[in-house]
Records
---
Amino acid sequence: SIPRPTVRRLSLYLREAESLLQAGHRTVSSSGLATSLAVTDAQVRRDLGHLGQKGRAGIGYRLAPLITRLRRALAVDRSRNVLIVGAGRIGRALMAYPRFDQRGFRIVAVVDADTSLVGRAIDGHVVQSVDQIETIVVDGDIEIGIVAVPEADARAVAQRLAACGISGLLNFAPCRLNVDVPVIDVDLSSSLEELAWAMAEPG
Amino acid sequence: SIPRPTVRRLSLYLREAESLLQAGHRTVSSSGLATSLAVTDAQVRRDLGHLGQKGRAGIGYRLAPLITRLRRALAVDRSRNVLIVGAGRIGRALMAYPRFDQRGFRIVAVVDADTSLVGRAIDGHVVQSVDQIETIVVDGDIEIGIVAVPEADARAVAQRLAACGISGLLNFAPCRLNVDVPVIDVDLSSSLEELAWAMAEPG
Ligand SMILES: NC(=O)c1ccc[n+]([C@@H]2O[C@H](COP(=O)([O-])OP(=O)(O)OC[C@H]3O[C@@H](n4cnc5c(N)ncnc54)[C@H](O)[C@@H]3O)[C@@H](O)[C@H]2O)c1
Ligand SMILES: NC(=O)c1ccc[n+]([C@@H]2O[C@H](COP(=O)([O-])OP(=O)(O)OC[C@H]3O[C@@H](n4cnc5c(N)ncnc54)[C@H](O)[C@@H]3O)[C@@H](O)[C@H]2O)c1
């Protein structure tokens, strides 16, 4: 099993490899990956070595097979259906972002408890009622739920999603969801803290 | 200098310690911190040992001094002024979030290039013109800029912010900003990738 910090690096290598391929490159060196991602050359070689990828001297790694291998390691080599719960500010910022689809996370439904939002089309998605969660998750073959509701409602929403068989949750609410499925908490103030620390670092 | 994965853990310990203190606790054990954050007990003791914090057998760590020490290590022991560039979907989700202020990141100004937004009050912030960036950063003693504009505009915005002395950038646009100040890139699709990997893990 891959440790979490390694997963973060693999995700960065994948993004970089995909943008190089899109720009017309066919290979990349470990030092090329290292400099653009602020990791050491040796770290890149160790991470990719674990995946059975060996760079060839003078040529580096061929991008197309590297991308395929990274997508498999990160378990994103197939698309997954996603439901957003909460069509508020965060929900709308996510609904409008085309890159999720490109990376294999297809937003297929959006629900809200506010009846005045239900039935409205926002950025190409028609908001449905939160009462339909069970039917939507099962009929829509939805694997991931995004919790974008106020803190007071988040646990109840999460428990409902877990109860109808969702496989994982991305949580924006600033509280722990206490459910049996994997949860990734998004906390943008941690990103600001990481920035404050980077600003305080010498050099 | 603290390695970046350690910074992420320290930020989690700080959040946990603060919510325990708010709930009326006065101490926490290393295993208490470890279980709620999915790290090992030994990792907690090593991390906090680096900061000179020693838990006392049977009692653990006293929360108040632990919080003070963590805030100092993360360089968040004082408040910083923040400017949001882009009052669109992402910008509005950030403007409305009260926790940034609680964690020492005060959103003091919001600017946009869209003249129909300039002068409008949104969630307690009056949107100003992007033409005023230089004056706002200098007069407002702003240290951090949040880049919440479309990808095509992001680099120019970042260069302008760096040129007028901003100390760090939080970037939402899906591109590298290439500026001389520290940048943290927020990429929510990486969080989804981390979730997909956690869903694929056994156990
Ligand atoms: N982690 C971060 O850095 C960060 C940043 C901003 C906001 N947030 C959090 O994200 C969450 C969403 O924030 P927002 O600004 O989008 O809030 P918002 O108020 O703009 O939107 C919330 C939406 O959820 C809907 N809702 C409420 N209860 C519901 C329920 N039981 N089922 C379905 N829908 C329900 C509301 O009708 C509303 O449309 C909040 O918990 C907020 O604290 C986190
Ligand atoms: N990283 C992620 O996971 C993620 C998720 C969603 C969106 N995004 C990105 O975040 C950014 C913002 O997205 P959004 O949905 O809020 O976009 P949006 O279109 O809703 O808002 C963008 C705002 O920026 C303003 N703007 C444009 N050029 C400007 C300039 N030069 N100076 C000042 N303001 C300017 C626009 O007038 C608009 O109000 C985009 O780059 C988007 O790709 C990232």
Note: Chain B touches chain A through 57 residues (CB under 8 Å).
---
Amino acid sequence: IIPEPTLVRLTIYGRCLNDLIEEGATLVASDELAHRAGVNAAQVRKDLSYLGSFGRRGVGYDVRHLSDRIATAMGLTKERGFIIVGAGRLGSALMGYDGFNKKGFRAAAAFDADINKVGQAIGSVTIRDINELSSFVQANGTEIGIITVPASFAQSVADSLVKAGIKAILNFAPIVIKVPAGIRYRQVELSSEMEVLAHYLNSQGD
Amino acid sequence: IIPEPTLVRLTIYGRCLNDLIEEGATLVASDELAHRAGVNAAQVRKDLSYLGSFGRRGVGYDVRHLSDRIATAMGLTKERGFIIVGAGRLGSALMGYDGFNKKGFRAAAAFDADINKVGQAIGSVTIRDINELSSFVQANGTEIGIITVPASFAQSVADSLVKAGIKAILNFAPIVIKVPAGIRYRQVELSSEMEVLAHYLNSQGD
Ligand SMILES: NC(=O)c1ccc[n+]([C@@H]2O[C@H](COP(=O)([O-])OP(=O)(O)OC[C@H]3O[C@@H](n4cnc5c(N)ncnc54)[C@H](O)[C@@H]3O)[C@@H](O)[C@H]2O)c1
Ligand SMILES: NC(=O)c1ccc[n+]([C@@H]2O[C@H](COP(=O)([O-])OP(=O)(O)OC[C@H]3O[C@@H](n4cnc5c(N)ncnc54)[C@H](O)[C@@H]3O)[C@@H](O)[C@H]2O)c1
């Protein structure tokens, strides 16, 4: 089992390695990888030890080999479709985000309860009525659902996603939702990010 | 010093307490607060111990008192202006997000390098030219800058924010940027959220 903070850092190393491949590098020292990822070299070595032993002291890591190892460990070896429920400001922005595509996440569909939005195009799809959610997920075997509806609807949307067969949920609504055991769940708290910055500004005596 | 994971959980307790106030509750047991925040009661008690001692066993916490204590600890006792650099899809969504307003963060201005966007309205402001950044920050004493430009421009935008006098940066571009000591910095990695979900799906044998 890889601890969650390590998983998150592995995704950052993966991105840094992609940048290095684009720059034509073939080897990278743990110091260099640590600098690009904003951590220290000991942390890099410790995190990578969860993937087995490789890289020789003094020589560094093979960039492509390490990148492939991380992609495999993260389960990025196949394309995964995701759907978005709530085609508003944030949902539309996420539909158009190529950072998801680059890692093999494909925007499969967007759903909304507002009848005026249904049929409009966002990113590469047209917005569907929320009543089509269940039949779409079952027909396509979609694994991941993203929730970008107001907080008061988030739990009921999560329940419909689970019922439709979704296996993993990323929730942006500012409310902790409950999902059954076995359903993977992550919560993005953007307002908390600002509050933590405010705390640090406050303790610096602003 | 309060550890960062505790700070993030304190912001979630703060939001749960706001919900409780809206529901008319005056007292809350650590079990109930833990359930709403998606953690266990021992974690709640441990986190709150960083704020001093209060709440009597068996009686629970005074909702308003605890909410005020958390707001004070998080530095939410005054309004803080923020600016957004990169008025594209994500930047526009964030400008309109009322979750920031609710915690006292006010969208002061948005900047963009695309001359065709300058002058357009987003949220409650009109988009300004990036060249006005420095004079705006100095004239208004803005503390927080949000970066929503493509990764290749993020470091240079961060440098201009620091030079202009910004004290804290929230970066959404998928690249780790370097800031001088004393500048508070947080990085939001939305693609990592999806990758971590993919890892769990993969290890469940999807
Ligand atoms: N805008 C941001 O930058 C931002 C940032 C962080 C978190 N959030 C959170 O993300 C969510 C969406 O925010 P937004 O700014 O995009 O709001 P929005 O109002 O622009 O979009 C919400 C969309 O959800 C739809 N909707 C409502 N109930 C629904 C239901 N039951 N089923 C399907 N669709 C439904 C609405 O019709 C609307 O299109 C909110 O919970 C918000 O707090 C937004
Ligand atoms: N769209 C999303 O949901 C999403 C999610 C996660 C991360 N991101 C990241 O956020 C950033 C913005 O993404 P987006 O989808 O909004 O892209 P976008 O292309 O819609 O917007 C980018 C904006 O930045 C402006 N810009 C470019 N260089 C600039 C500079 N030097 N100074 C000022 N403005 C400049 C552009 O003119 C444009 O308006 C990217 O780094 C992206 O990887 C986006």
Note: The mean pLDDT of chain B is 95.
